[in-house]
């Protein structure tokens, strides 16, 4: 069995408008986790972090990558080995790009690889969902692509890969402020009307077909939502300004990535650079410091080397 492995996990964007808590896609932005077994005398864990906002990541037993690593062994009723974890961060924290999911998937895959991979992908998905609490980020982070995750009656997850047309380009603009998932959930209502439920059901169906076919006329309608975005927009100053700039530059539409505050536009490939620049400029003109990036769909998911 190996004594050291590196796990590379992609960032994710969840919801994509009407796909609240069930739809997500992996993006070409990555965190890297290296796990090296230690002599037990060295202590239970030693963690080193570098990269984006590295100074803000805890380096003790409460680190999420380590907690997921340890959870793997607890679930298999095995002793947790002493381990050194070196983390290289490129996905910003608490911005709606699945940073916590990269840690969960990284910890689980690292543990599984050090055990010579006895647990299959389906079981790893269930472990990851159990830790995260919902599948929309951890599933695409683990398996790649765009994924629809549906809870079965027995609590297990049914995964449905969603075809993503090659002409559709994801563009993200990341502000320098955070928005926690907990805060973003607190603004949501406890109940919804029948009309809102029907609206989202119809729009999600249209979104899935729009992603598959690349039809811009469908995508321009399909990214509408009444479950979470109207409420979360109030927490993101400048949302309307950036949304208008994106569509004027040629984007099909703009949504909140995950719980936010990162904003995601879907654009035709030929307009992606213009959309990226327009979104960044519009938000910067409101006084907000941002980073904007043209990305692509990551089809492979997490990898181990």
List keywords for this structure.
305 residues, alpha+beta, Ribosomal Protein S5, domain 2, Alpha-Beta Plaits, 2 domains, seven-stranded mixed β-sheet, 11 strands
* CA-based gyration radius: 19 Å
Q: How many independent structural domains?
A: 2
Which percent band covers the strand fraction? Answer: 25-35%
Number of helical elements? 10
Going by CATH, the architecture of the largest domain would be 2-Layer Sandwich
What structural class should be given to the helix and strand makeup? alpha+beta
Distance between the termini: 13 Å
Low confidence ranges: none
Helix content estimate: 25-40%
Question: Roughly what is the average pLDDT, rounded to an integer?
Answer: 95
Q: Under the CATH scheme, which class of the largest domain?
A: Alpha Beta
Provide an overview of this structure.
The chain has 305 residues and is an alpha+beta fold. The chain folds into two domains: 4-162, 2-Layer Sandwich (Ribosomal Protein S5, domain 2), CATH 3.30.230; 168-294, 2-Layer Sandwich (Alpha-Beta Plaits). The protein is built from ten helices and eleven strands. Strands 1, 2, 3, 4, 5, 6 and 11 form a seven-stranded mixed beta sheet that branches. Helix 1 crosses helix 2, helix 2 (99-114) crosses helix 3 and helix 9 packs antiparallel against helix 10 (272-284). The protein is globular and about 60 Å long. The relative contact order is 0.18.
Task: Compile the SSE list and pairings.
Layout: E1 4-14, E2 23-37, E3 45-51, H1 64-75, E4 83-89, H2 99-114, H3 121-132, H4 138-143, E5 146-151, E6 157-162, E7 168-175, H5 181-186, H6 194-213, H7 216-222, H8 229-232, H9 239-248, E8 253-256, E9 263-268, H10 272-284, E10 290-294, E11 303-304
Parallel strand pairs: 3-4
Antiparallel strand pairs: 1-2, 1-11, 2-4, 2-5, 5-6, 7-9, 7-10, 8-9
Helix pairs in contact: 1-2, 2-3, 6-7, 9-10
């Amino acid at each position: 069995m190996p004594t050291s492995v590196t796990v590379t996990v992609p960032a994710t964007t969840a919801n994509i408008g009407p796909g609240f808590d069930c739809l997500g896609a992996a993006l070409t932005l990555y965190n890297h986790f290296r796990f090296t077994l230690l002599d037990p005398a060295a202590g239970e864990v030693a963690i080193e972090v570098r990269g984006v906002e590295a100074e803000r990541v805890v380096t003790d037993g409460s680190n999420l990558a380590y907690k997921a690593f340890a959870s793997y062994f607890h679930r298999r009723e095995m002793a947790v080995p002493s381990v050194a974890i070196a983390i290289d961060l490129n996905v910003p924290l608490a911005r709606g790009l699945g940073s916590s999911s990269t840690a969960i998937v990284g910890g689980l895959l690292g543990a599984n690889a050090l055990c010579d991979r006895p647990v299959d992908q389906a079981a790893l998905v269930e472990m990851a969902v159990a830790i995260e609490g919902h599948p929309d980020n951890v599933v695409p982070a683990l398996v790649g692509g765009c994924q629809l995750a549906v809870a079965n009656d027995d609590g297990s997850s049914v995964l449905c890969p969603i075809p993503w047309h090659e002409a559709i380009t994801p563009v993200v603009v990341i502000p320098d402020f955070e928005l926690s998932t907990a805060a973003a959930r607190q603004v949501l209502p406890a109940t919804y009307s029948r009309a809102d439920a029907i609206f989202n059901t119809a729009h999600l169906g249209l979104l899935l077909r729009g992603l598959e076919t690349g039809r811009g006329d469908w995508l321009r309608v399909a990214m509408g939502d009444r479950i979470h975005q109207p409420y979360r927009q109030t927490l993101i100053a400048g949302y309307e300004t950036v949304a208008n700039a994106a569509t004027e530059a040629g984007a099909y539409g703009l949504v909140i990535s995950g719980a936010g505050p990162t904003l995601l536009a879907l654009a035709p490939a030929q307009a992606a650079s213009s959309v990226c620049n327009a979104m960044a400029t519009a938000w910067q003109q409101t006084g907000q410091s941002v980073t904007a990036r043209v990305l692509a769909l990551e089809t492979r998911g997490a990898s181990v080397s």
